[in-house]
Amino acid sequence: MKGKHIIGAVFAGILMSATVISASATCVGVGTVAGDGLRLRKDVGLNSAVITTANKGATVVVLEEANGWYKVDFDTQVGYMSAGFVTVETSVEKDLGWGMVTTKGDPLNLRSGAGTGFEVVDKLHNGVSVKVLGLFDGWYKVTYNDKTGYVSSDYVTLTADNQGSRKDGDILIDEPTPLAGSVLGQSIVNEAMKHLGKAYRSGAKGPNAFDCSGFAYYCVKQASGGAIKLSGGSSTQWRTAPGTRINSISQLQPGDLFFICDPAYSAGYPTSHVAIYAGNGMLIHAADRKTGVVMNAIKDKDIRYFVGAIRLG
To answer: SS3 sequence, 174-236?
Structure first.
């Protein structure tokens, strides 16, 4: 079985343009290392350079077989191990850590079972992080937004955390088409403008009242025709929303989700508030109970507590 490589962009705290080969592939199975100090090598053969070593009992994901060697993903590093020291199961329920959806823009079907004949229970967008709970005949069992299902391992790459990092740096995200992103962004702003003056209510997702994350959820869902459904809570949206991370206010474009973390309100979470950037230094957001949905200029405290932004796509 040949590995399927995806050209993507390196995730290193933020997403930056680069050309790399990812570890995404249809997986053969889950392997268990049978002896201490098994070497992970850069290529097939005993003379190939050693990347790292694995102890007895360590788990590897087997990507393909190669003349007495397995190409594996071990501890988010891809290399080769001697097949004689790895036992492989094609179906196993086991915590494999985090994974990131790596498609070329189209959403990935989350199905009720391991196969294309099973019902689609959700759609996962490029860049979404999932918890990987096992591998069943080339399908990962995953959880996302409290839903458990199965996705083709062709389009998920294992990661060290839910931010998309890997020890080998091979990630992952296909950059959105600029035109599509700008059209979607303006559609989000247009939708947000319709709701100026509506009430703020904690936990509300519209259409007559919103909190900050509910407002982002509703506007994005409407503007994308239901194709993008953000998670609840600004911190979860910051971690899981599909798109490009922006780390500078000067790089903002209309429709970008704008996140801040004011420690007085964050309760230890990574963000405390989310708004929609409207262009020309303006934000639209469900601000608080007193003001409801408003549009206002970016304030000094917004700059001080700016975490980052996400350009959806």
So the answer is: CCCCHHHHHHHHHHHHHHHHCCCCCEECCCCECCCEECHHHHHHHHHHHHCCCCCCCCCCHHH
- What is the residue range of 256's domain? 178-312
Cα Rg, the chain, nearest whole Å: 21
211 lies in the same domain as 134: no
pLDDT in tens, 173-205: 443 333 334 789 999 999 999 999 999 999 999
Tally of domains in the chain:
2
42 and 125 assigned to the same domain: yes
Same domain for 26 and 53: yes
Q: Considering the entire predicted model, what is its pTM?
A: 0.52
Strands lying side by side in the sheet with 91-101 = 120-124, 108-111, 147-152, 139-144, 129-136, 91-101, 156-159
pLDDT in tens, 3-12: 333 222 222 2
